[in-house]
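FAQ

Q: What does a record look like?
A: Structure on top, sequence underneath. For example:
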C-alpha cells in the first residue's frame, strides 16, 4: 500500500502454531527468506495499544543467521519466553534484516507529551539501528511543525516527512510512532508503525498553533530589522543568555513567575544597572520577550548593553555585528555568551585575546586598542577600593533590610504591603544585586586570568574560591548547629525560612513551610574552609600585571574586591528574595481571603495585583483575579503545546529546528521532588517514589516500571527512545539523555526536583 517507502518481507505466525509444528514454521522461514540475516520480533496483544505501547517490554532478536535453524529457533523461543503468561495466543514475526544502513531512527507524528502537531525525528547516521531506540549514540533530533509553510531542504528528511504524511493518511490517525531507516542508496524503509498512546497525556492536539506561529514569525521578522536605537544588522533570541530565564523561571513559566521576573529585572532594572556601570543606555528596551509564553532574551539588545558608552559608534556597531555573527556560527555558546562571545570587562589577558580574536576579523590595531581602553575604564570604576560601584550597591542592599522590616511590621493592608515590597525590592534589591552580580563576573574573569597567566595553579584556584564565606556555606553550618542543638529550629527559620527552591514560583514551598521534607534526609556537617593566603611572589606577580595594564588598584585591593563581590552576590540575592518571598506569601493570604484557589495563583499576572494599589474599579478582588486567571489559563495551553528552539537565529526557526545533542530530553510535563537512587543501588534499594539514575535508556531496565519509581534520569538516550516512550505513557517524569556533565552533577544530590514542563532541575 505504501508508495513513499519500502517494507521488508515479513512472515507472521502464532506461538500456538510454532509449538504445534516447530519444524514446519522453521521450514517456511527458510523458504520465505533469502537474506543472510533475519530479525525475530515480538508481536504481542499487549504491545502498541491505544493506552499502552509496552515498547521495548518484549524481546526482539537481531542478527539471526537465516541458514542456522537452531539459532532461529533459539531466537523465537527467547521472544516467547518474554511473553511469560498466556503466550499461546500471541504472535511473532520474522523479517529480513536490512543491510548497508546509512541512517536509522524513530519519528513521531505528534509531540509525545501533548500530541501537538509536530514531526519529531530522532536519527543516527552511524549505521546502527538501536542507538536511537535504546542505548544512545551520536543521534540528531529534528522538529518540524506539521503545517510549516517552508520546504525542508534536507533530502532524506523531506522524503521521510512525505512518508509520515502518507502513513497518517493510510491509518487515518495523526499520532504515530514510526521506526525507519535509509540504506546507502538513500532508499527509505519503514520497520514499524505504532500508535502513540494517549495515556497520562493532556491532549492539546486540537489547539490551532498555525495562526499563532504565523504571528511569532511576523513578530520576529519585524524585530529583526534595523532599529534606530540599536546597533546590529539582525536579531537573535535565546532562552539562556545573560539573565538566563530558562534556569531561573523555566522554559514554560506560568504567568505569575514570568511577569514577576519581568517586573523585578528584565523590563527595566537590568538596563538601569548597565547604564549606571558605564555601558550603553538601553533603558527603554525590555531584555526578555515572550513568544507564546516562552521567554527569550533579545540577544541583540543584550549585546548592545555590553558596549561601553565611551566607545566610538562605528567600532561599537562593528563589535555588536561581530558578536551576533559569532553566536550564530557557534550556537553551543548561547548559555555562556559572557565567557565565549562578548568582551564586557577588562582582565589581565584580555589584550592578548582581543588581538587574537578581533585582529583576524577586520579590526585594526587602533580599533582593538580603543575596545581595550573602554573596557579598562569601566573596570577601574567598578573595582576602585574607595569609590567602586559595587560598594554603593552593597550599601543599598542594607537599606532593603530596613525597608523590609518597616513594611512587614506596619499596619498597611496586604495589597499595599505587596506593592511596596516589590517596589523597594526593585530599587534596593534587584538593581544593586544586578550591579554586584556584574562585579562578581569581573572578579571571576580576574581569577580565571590568574590561572591562565600562572599566578596560581588550578588547585590553588580551588583553594582560593573554597575559602569564600557565602550564605550557602553559612546555611550548611547553621543546619549542622541545629542538628547538634546549638541553635533552635526557630532561630534557623528566622534567618532562612523565606528561601524557596523556585524563587519566583508561588507553589514552591518556603523552608519554613516544609522544613521536614527539605531537610529530613540531610546529615549535615560543618563546612570545612581553609584560609587561602597569597604568597609574596604571587602578590608581586599581580602588582606587576596591574602596573603593566594601568589598573587603578593594588594586588591586595583587587583580591579584596574579588572576595567582596563574589560573597556579596549571594548575600544580595539572599536579602532581596526575602522581600520577594514575603510578597508571594501575602498574595496567598489575599487568595484565601477572597476565595481564590492557591494553585490558580500561578496564572495571575503580578501587574494585576500591583494595580490594586493605585486603581479601583467596580469589581471586587475575586472578580479581578478570576478574570485574569481564566484568560491566562487559556493562553498557557498554547504555551504548553508550542515547540520552539532554545536559540532563534532566523524567523523560520519557529517552524523547524534541530535540537543540539547535548540538550536533555524532558519527558512528560510533570514535576517530582524525591530522593536520588543510583544505578548500583537498584538491587538492594527501595525504589518507591525515588528518582532513579541509570547510564543508558536501554529497554533492559524495563523492570523499573514495576517498582513505582518517582522519576528517571539517564545519561544517554534519545527523545524517541524506548524509555522515553514508556515514561511518557506511564506518566513518569524523566530526563532522557541528560549528558555527562548534567548527569554527574545531578546524581550527587540527596534530594532532587525535576520540573519537566519548565525543563528545570533543582538540587534541593
Amino acid at each position: 500500500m505504501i508508495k513513499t517507502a519500502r517494507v521488508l518481507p515479513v512472515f507472521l505466525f502464532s506461538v500456538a502454531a510454532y509449538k504445534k509444528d516447530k519444524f514446519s514454521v522453521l521450514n517456511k522461514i527458510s523458504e520465505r527468506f533469502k537474506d543472510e540475516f533475519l530479525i525475530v520480533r515480538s508481536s504481542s496483544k499487549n504491545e502498541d495499544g491505544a493506552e499502552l505501547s509496552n515498547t521495548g517490554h518484549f524481546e526482539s532478536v537481531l542478527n539471526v543467521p537465516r541458514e542456522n535453524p537452531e539459532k532461529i529457533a533459539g531466537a523465537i523461543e527467547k521472544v516467547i519466553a518474554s511473553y511469560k503468561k498466556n503466550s499461546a495466543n500471541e504472535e511473532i514475526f520474522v523479517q529480513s534484516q536490512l543491510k548497508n544502513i546509512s541512517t536509522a531512527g524513530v519519528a513521531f507524528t505528534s509531540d509525545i507529551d501533548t500530541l501537538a502537531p509536530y514531526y519529531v525525528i530522532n536519527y543516527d547516521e552511524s549505521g546502527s539501528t538501536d542507538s536511537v531506540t535504546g542505548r544512545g549514540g551520536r543521534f540528531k533530533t529534528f522538529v518540524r511543525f506539521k503545517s510549516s509553510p517552508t520546504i525542508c531542504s534536507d533530502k532524506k528528511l523531506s522524503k521521510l516527512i512525505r512518508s509520515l504524511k502518507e502513513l497518517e493518511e493510510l491509518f487515518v490517525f495523526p499520532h504515530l510512532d514510526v521506526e525507519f531507516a535509509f540504506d546507502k542508496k538513500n532508499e527509505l524503509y519503514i520497520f514499524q508503525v505504532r500508535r502513540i498512546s494517549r495515556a497520562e497525556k493532556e491532549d492539546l492536539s486540537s489547539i490551532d498553533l498555525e495562526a499563532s506561529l504565523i504571528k511569532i514569525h511576523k513578530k520576529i521578522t519585524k524585530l529583526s530589522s534595523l532599529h534606530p536605537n540599536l546597533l546590529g544588522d539582525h536579531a537573535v533570541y535565546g532562552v539562556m543568555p545573560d539573565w538566563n530565564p530558562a534556569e531561573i523561571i523555566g522554559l514554560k513559566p506560568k504567568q505569575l513567575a514570568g511577569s514577576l521576573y519581568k517586573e523585578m529585572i528584565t523590563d527595566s532594572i537590568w538596563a538601569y544597572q548597565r547604564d549606571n556601570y558605564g555601558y550603553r543606555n538601553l533603558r527603554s528596551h525590555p531584555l526578555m520577550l515572550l513568544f507564546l509564553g516562552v521567554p527569550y532574551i533579545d540577544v541583540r539588545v543584550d549585546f548592545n548593553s555590553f558596549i561601553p558608552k565611551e566607545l566610538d559608534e562605528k567600532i561599537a556597531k562593528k563589535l555588536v555585528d561581530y558578536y551576533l555573527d559569532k553566536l550564530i556560527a557557534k550556537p553551543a555558546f548561547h548559555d555562556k555568551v559572557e565567557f565565549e562571545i562578548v568582551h564586557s570587562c577588562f582582565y589581565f589577558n584580555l589584550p592578548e585575546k582581543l588581538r587574537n580574536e578581533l585582529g583576524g576579523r577586520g579590526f585594526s590595531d587602533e580599533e582593538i586598542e580603543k575596545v581595550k581602553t573602554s573596557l579598562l575604564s569601566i573596570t577601574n570604576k567598578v573595582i576602585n577600593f574607595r569609590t567602586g560601584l559595587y560598594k554603593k550597591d552593597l550599601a543599598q542592599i542594607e537599606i532593603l533590610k530596613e525597608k523590609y522590616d518597616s513594611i512587614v511590621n506596619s499596619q498597611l493592608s496586604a495589597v499595599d504591603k505587596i506593592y511596596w515590597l516589590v517596589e523597594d525590592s526593585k530599587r534596593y534589591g534587584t538593581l544593586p544585586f544586578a550591579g554586584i552580580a556584574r562585579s562578581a563576573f569581573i572578579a571571576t574573569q580576574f581569577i580565571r586570568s590568574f590561572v591562565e597567566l600562572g599566578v596560581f595553579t588550578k588547585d590553588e584556584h580551588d583553594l582560593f574560591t573554597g575559602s569564600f564565606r557565602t550564605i550557602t556555606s553559612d546555611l550548611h553550618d547553621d543546619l549542622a548547629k541545629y542538628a547538634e542543638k546549638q541553635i533552635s529550629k526557630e532561630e534557623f527559620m528566622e534567618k532562612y525560612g523565606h528561601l524557596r527552591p523556585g524563587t519566583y514560583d508561588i507553589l514552591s514551598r518556603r523552608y519554613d513551610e516544609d522544613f521536614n521534607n527539605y531537610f529530613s534526609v540531610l546529615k549535615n556537617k560543618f563546612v570545612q574552609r581553609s584560609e587561602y593566603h597569597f604568597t609574596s611572589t604571587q602578590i608581586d606577580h599581580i602588582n606587576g600585571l596591574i602596573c603593566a595594564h594601568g589598573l587603578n588598584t593594588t594586588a591586595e585591593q583587587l583580591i579584596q574586591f574579588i572576595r567582596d563581590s563574589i560573597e556579596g552576590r549571594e548575600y544580595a540575592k539572599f536579602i532581596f528574595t526575602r522581600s520577594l518571598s514575603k510578597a508571594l506569601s501575602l498574595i496567598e493570604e489575599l487568595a484565601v481571603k477572597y476565595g481564590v484557589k492557591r494553585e490558580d495563583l500561578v496564572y495571575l499576572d503580578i501587574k494585576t495585583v500591583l494595580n490594586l494599589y493605585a486603581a479601583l474599579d467596580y469589581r471586587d478582588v475575586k472578580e479581578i483575579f478570576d478574570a485574569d486567571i481564566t484568560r491566562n489559563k487559556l493562553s498557557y495551553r498554547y504555551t504548553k503545546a508550542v515547540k520552539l528552539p532554545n536559540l532563534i537565529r532566523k524567523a523560520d526557526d519557529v517552524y523547524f529546528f534541530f535540537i543540539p545533542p547535548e540538550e536533555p530530553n524532558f519527558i512528560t510535563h510533570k514535576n517530582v521532588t524525591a530522593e536520588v537512587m543510583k544505578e548500583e543501588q537498584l538491587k538492594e534499594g527501595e525504589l518507591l517514589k525515588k528518582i532513579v539514575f541509570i547510564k543508558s535508556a536501554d529497554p533492559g531496565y524495563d523492570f523499573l516500571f514495576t517498582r513505582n519509581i518517582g522519576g528517571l534520569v539517564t545519561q544517554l538516550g534519545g527523545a524517541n527512545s524506548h524509555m522515553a516512550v514508556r515514561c511518557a505513557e506511564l506518566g513518569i517524569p524523566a530526563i532522557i539523555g541528560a549528558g555527562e556533565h548534567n548527569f554527574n552533577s545531578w546524581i550527587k544530590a540527596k534530594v532532587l526536583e525535576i520540573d519537566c514542563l519548565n525543563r528545570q532541575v533543582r538540587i534541593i
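Q: Is there anything notable about this one?
A: The radius of gyration is 29 Å.
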